[in-house]
Automatic annotation (TrEMBL):
<dbReference type="Pfam" id="PF00106">
    <property type="entry name" value="adh_short"/>
</dbReference>
<protein>
    <submittedName>
        <fullName>Unannotated protein</fullName>
    </submittedName>
</protein>
<dbReference type="GO" id="GO:0016020">
    <property type="term" value="C:membrane"/>
</dbReference>
<keyword id="KW-0560">Oxidoreductase</keyword>
<dbReference type="InterPro" id="IPR036291">
    <property type="entry name" value="NAD(P)-bd_dom_sf"/>
</dbReference>
<comment type="similarity">
    <text>Belongs to the short-chain dehydrogenases/reductases (SDR) family.</text>
</comment>
<dbReference type="InterPro" id="IPR002347">
    <property type="entry name" value="SDR_fam"/>
</dbReference>
<dbReference type="GO" id="GO:0016491">
    <property type="term" value="F:oxidoreductase activity"/>
</dbReference>
<feature type="region of interest" description="Disordered">
    <location>
        <begin position="45"/>
        <end position="67"/>
    </location>
</feature>
Length: 318
């Protein structure tokens, strides 16, 4: 766990915080005593913008959730909420959001990169996806977090501490079991999340010994508000874990001293939440429900290590 600065409140920045995983992370951090800067496109309830995940249709119906709602949840917990409208495709708005966070709070302790591109191309097959939409996903999902890190990392280094959490995805290292529209997802989502998955490790190496910690958090299938509304017609959704699973894991990673063992590693949120009992009301993980060729090598290695230690202990006793 990073060094505490007892003379000032802890602060966090969460992107994509108007609903779902981002909102949950922001609220769980507020519960842990953080003042939280939150960013997304949707500021007020009922805002209308295109969010169809496919080029084969249009959907501009209002989605549940807004930065105003998330801010109210934070302030209800007695913490400060800083509302920062921004668009991951507008890198200038990200620069402004990061600068305003530092100007308002004076420092930043935790950054959670959760926001991602929302729109056509996410659920389209490759030949149906214009290159422009692939570019949008790379610009938003990969370069967006890097733009924010360009401002936040130097501030963290100057203060000698800071934690960066990348909300990644199993699509970064697993192929879909079916094509987009039939239970799978578009190539742009997989490409961009694969790139996002590499960020934490590079930062961990480059800033080793300077008080900077990084984590990749893989949520697994999460039934967020938009997922429940949209994903059924694409062959999945309705059986995932609640967003609070990820919120609880992120809170634990940024506040618990034992979390350092996961630095620079990939944290399977549902497994860790279940293993540590971080969300008692949640019944537990359901791995591979989506038919993914799921990368469980880290979990299997840990099981092997535990079995080896138990065997050695048995031999020592005997």
């Amino acid at each position: 766990m990073q060094t505490e600065h007892v003379d000032r409140p802890r602060t966090a920045f969460v992107s994509g915080a108007s609903r779902g995983i981002g909102k949950s992370c922001a609220v769980f951090l507020a519960r842990a005593g953080f003042d939280v800067a939150i960013t997304a496109r949707t500021v007020h309830d009922g805002e209308v913008r295109e969010h169809s995940p496919t080029v084969h249709g249009s959907d501009s119906s209002p989605l549940p959730g807004s930065l105003e709602e998330t801010a109210a949840s934070i302030t209800d917990l007695g913490r400060t909420a800083l509302v920062l409208p921004a668009d991951l495709l507008d890198h200038g708005s990200l620069d402004e959001a990061a600068a305003r966070t530092l100007a308002t709070f004076g420092h930043i302790d935790v950054v959670v990169h959760n926001g991602r591109y929302v729109g056509p191309g996410h659920m389209d097959r490759f030949v149906d996806t214009p290159i422009e939409l692939l570019r949008h996903q790379l610009e938003a999902n990969v370069l967006g977090p890097l733009v924010l890190n360009k401002t936040f990392l130097p501030a963290m280094v100057a203060q000698g501490s800071g934690t960066i959490v990348m909300i990644t995805s199993a699509v970064a290292y697993a192929d879909p079991s079916s094509a987009a529209g039939e239970g799978g997802w578009g190539m742009g989502y997989g490409l961009s999340k694969a790139a996002v998955h590499r960020i934490a490790g590079f930062i961990e190496v480059e800033y080793a010994g300077q008080g900077i910690r990084t984590f990749n958090v893989q949520p697994g299938m999460i039934d967020a508000e938009r997922t429940l509304l949209e994903s059924g017609r694409f062959g999945f959704g309705g059986w995932g874990a609640p967003p609070d699973v990820v919120g609880a894991v992120v809170r634990w990673l940024v506040t618990h001293p034992d979390a350092d063992r996961y630095r620079g590693a990939n944290v399977e949120a549902q497994f860790l939440c279940h293993e540590l009992g971080l969300l008692p009301e949640w019944p537990g993980p359901n791995a591979n429900r989506a038919g993914l060729r799921y990368d469980r090598s880290a979990e299997q290695l840990r099981d092997f290590e535990e079995q080896l230690v138990a065997t050695l202990n048995d031999r020592t006793v005997s």
